[in-house]
Amino acid sequence: MLAVDVPVLNPAPFTGGRVRPVAGAPPERVVFLFPRLAPNAFKVLSRIYGLGGKDFYAADAEQFFEQAIAAAKLGYVTEAFAYHGATPGKPGSSPRPGLPPITAAEVSLGMAQVHRDETTGRLKVELQPLWKMTEVPNRIGPGHGACPGCGAFPTLHQIYNVLEGDVVVLFQTGCAMVVTTGYPATAHRINYVHNLFQNGAATLSGLVEMYHERVRRGELPASKDITFVMISGDGGMDIGMGPAIGAANRNHRMMIL
Length: 257
Ligand SMILES: Cc1ncc(C[n+]2csc(CCOP(=O)(O)OP(=O)(O)O)c2C)c(N)n1
Ligand code: SF4
Known about the structure:
binds iron/sulfur cluster; Rossmann fold; 4-stranded parallel β-sheet; binds thiamine diphosphate; 257 residues; single chain
């Protein structure tokens, strides 16, 4: 038996079925004794609801109770997992094929040369002219939902132009993330991750460390060209300020833009 000690405001006589109060318990507390349950005696029905902002009404909840009661009466669960109230769409259809992922070779065109000045220790960066940079294919595909004239994407393109090799990018929540990731498509032609303002820096720094650790163990091929970049806005730099400063203090090999 399993004993559960429950404080009660109104210790009325308990008339439950298999669960019963212990005789002689003080009047302000009731100790219930539950028959010890066999392993896996619980039956679980998982239901996902509210997808796509669908409302959830009392009638929906009643359906859940009816399904639970039916399972209890049957003694087993016929449908362990189901979506509730979701529109199935067109199950056979698939999105139109988009542009292929960008390869590292396509974007490694020498748009920036970096030299260390050995006397001062400073880095000297020489950039190709902007007209020359137009040769670099964009890691963000065209046709996304940004407003015409949005400044975010030319800026990103300029940064991407000078980053050679593989790039893993994490966008925090914000307009640039929303307009490029309309389900089921994506405009990102490189490895892309999204996470929340307060999680972005922790997520990307974790990926950085996981990557280098797996390279160290010989589980991933070493690439000296991989760059981890987090794209942040004022959301990420106020709600996510602490994790971003933490990532900077820990000195992970990543960039925050
Ligand atoms: C964890 C979390 N907190 C708060 C919000 C609400 N929120 C949505 S967008 C946004 C501001 C985003 O600003 P910014 O990062 O500059 O992006 P942009 O203005 O380009 O959309 C906030 C606070 C959210 N989506 N998620
Ligand atoms: S940030 Fe968003 S709302 Fe602003 S111009 Fe760009 S796409 Fe439009």
